[in-house]
Amino acid sequence: MLKIRDVCKIFNHTKVLENINLDVKKSSILGIAGPSGCGKSTFLRCIQKLEPIDHGTIECGGRTGFMFQDFQLFPHMTVLQNLTYAPTLKNKDSGKDYKKQAEGMLGDLGMASKANEYPNTLSGGQKQRVALARSLMTQPDILLCDEPTSGLDVSTTMDVVALLQSVGEQFGITIIIASHDLDFLTKISDRIVLLKDGAIAVDMDPRTDGAPIDFLKRYY
Ligand code: ADP
């Protein structure tokens, strides 16, 4: 689904990513761990082509969608408008009914009753659902999530785990999640890659390796 070869990313003469090689299987959930500033977010941004890479190749077998940290919802738009704005702008002449698609997506994520509300009236967990619905509007094959649980309490974080897992299964999407939250990552991922000093320091299956959190913590 995703083939990454010898990828390097340099910021101000510093190699943030150095010769990254990674293959990601279809419909898997990959967690990206690592200490703050290790390049997790940059890695996702390179896959989404929000940042150009300085070396290597990223081959993506489908469309990508990006869920930004802290939701980044448009405050002056309703939930429904948040979902339809980008696709309508991008495909003005397609005549496609994005409103209907958005309503369906909100229904799938249990947010149909909030379609005409503004983001400031929603809880953190509800905002996260809207952000997820918005990133699914492009019908991505790969969903890139940057710190999806930042600012959420433990029980809402557990809702996000269930939500992302069900979205992965329901839509057959490959999900890549960058997070500092090891508890969250080990619960949701079927594979975890830890970045350190620009390279992959650990590549593990948290379900088969005993005490994965303790193991990963050694690299912080
Ligand atoms: P993480 O997500 O793991 O916390 P980031 O990918 O945000 O790490 O950042 C990795 C490194 O790259 C940090 O040292 C950060 O300061 C630097 N960096 C990120 N974005 C930029 C940028 N646009 N310009 C310069 N340096 C950047």
Short description:
The protein has 220 residues and is of the alpha/beta class. The protein contains seven helices and nine strands, in the order E-E-E-H-E-E-H-H-H-E-H-E-H-E-E-H. The strands form two sheets. A six-stranded mixed β-sheet has the order 5-6-7-3-8-9, with helices on both faces.
Plain-language structure description:
It is a single chain. This protein has 220 residues and is an alpha/beta fold. The chain has one domain: P-loop containing nucleotide triphosphate hydrolases (Rossmann fold), CATH 3.40.50. It has a six-stranded mixed β-sheet, sandwiched between helices. A three-stranded antiparallel β-sheet has the order 2-1-4, covered by helices on one side. Helix 2 packs parallel to helix 4. The chain is globular and about 45 Å long. The mean pLDDT is 92. Bound molecules: adenosine-5'-diphosphate.
Lay out the secondary structure.
Blueprint: E1 2-11, E2 14-24, E3 29-33, H1 40-47, E4 55-60, E5 64-67, H2 79-90, H3 98-108, H4 124-136, E6 142-146, H5 154-171, E7 174-178, H6 182-188, E8 191-196, E9 199-204, H7 212-217
Parallel strand pairs: 3-7, 3-8, 5-6, 6-7
Antiparallel strand pairs: 1-2, 1-4, 8-9
Helix pairs in contact: 2-3, 2-4, 4-5
This protein binds adenosine-5'-diphosphate.
